[in-house]
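INTERNAL AUDIT FORM
Audit reference: QA-55
Scope: verify that the stored structure record matches its stored sequence.
Auditor: D.O.
Record contents follow.
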Amino acid sequence: MATRNNRTVAICVDVRQKAARDIEDGVMRQIVAHGGAEAMLLGNHPCNDGFDRSTGTAPDIVVANYEELKGANRDLLRSRHVKAALFFGAVPPGLPYPAVSVVSDDRAIGAAAAQVLVRSGLRAFAYLGAPHGDRWSVARRDAFAAALAERGFALAADYSPSAKRPDWRRERRNLAAWVRDLPKPCGVFAAFDQRARHLLSVCRGEGLPVPRQIQVLGVDDEEYVCENEIPSLSSLAVDFRGAAQEAMQAIFAHLETGSPLPSAFLAGVAGFTERLSTCDVSRSGERVNRARDFIRLHASEGISPSDVARHVGGTLRYLESGFRAVLGTTVEAELREARLQAAVHLLEDTETPLGDIAGRVGAGNPRSLMNAFKRRFGCSMRQWRSKSRP
């Protein structure tokens, strides 16, 4: 077996990405812990012009993102000196030595996103995918939708374009239209932090208040991105550092003892940092949702806006300000809509006389209900019942 002495590890990752920096950090930590090895940092950086830095090197282990390798570094993978490799993402085919990959645990990330947004009291949820339709983005969406379903919710909208070279001007228009059509309030899980920034920019342009109407959650917890957004961006951190350290430890053990080498190491969720994009400091969204649930259950009992305010706590004026901020409507309008929908049910599914419907739905005055019904649906209650019957 090979000895542990004089191991050389070539690290070729783009340190402008937080995930790559975390992987490099995890690898370096394991090199230090291991002893008898040295690192060559060949990665990209804003101060140099690319990855062509490996001429004349002969590493035992290569750490790289294959899709970003260029020139001499890609040739480096075929060197007779290389005995193992760790890849950030996909492993290229046909390598003459063992290789492992470090990839995000997209199932865990999607599940964590659902947990964060559901516990905020939201009832509507959407997913904003990567602009290139990447498989990992689709996997995060599917896991998010599945975790929502387990909690009794559905994914209301999904924006996952597949264009390889997006026209950003058109993309902004399309994203703006998508956001306008979302149910409000809505929690949007974005595939990664930079994508969440696109959404926050569009929300500012459309005049949609975050977090009152749209709550935004990203992934990667890039602090300099998240802290400098308006509002600051809540984000899930991914444990690429821990996964890379574990993978590097396995490579060293394989080279020294011949122990089996797994094909992949999953980077799970390392934590969640809540910032203003999901933090409704006034709890208006939660209060409004509780009020809407109460209205749906009890509107037919003749409750008033004051009854709703007493149920959720606080004054009616305070609740009204929340309804205007979150839904752009009033408590009275929400009560009226609930009663009109109850009237539609009675017209379509029962033989309740028209004059009795107002009392059945808690509206009080039959004439007022009939007038409101006609304004809302463009026809009389009698006409609605006639059209709904075969």
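Auditor finding: record pair retrieved intact. The mean pLDDT is 88.
Action required: none
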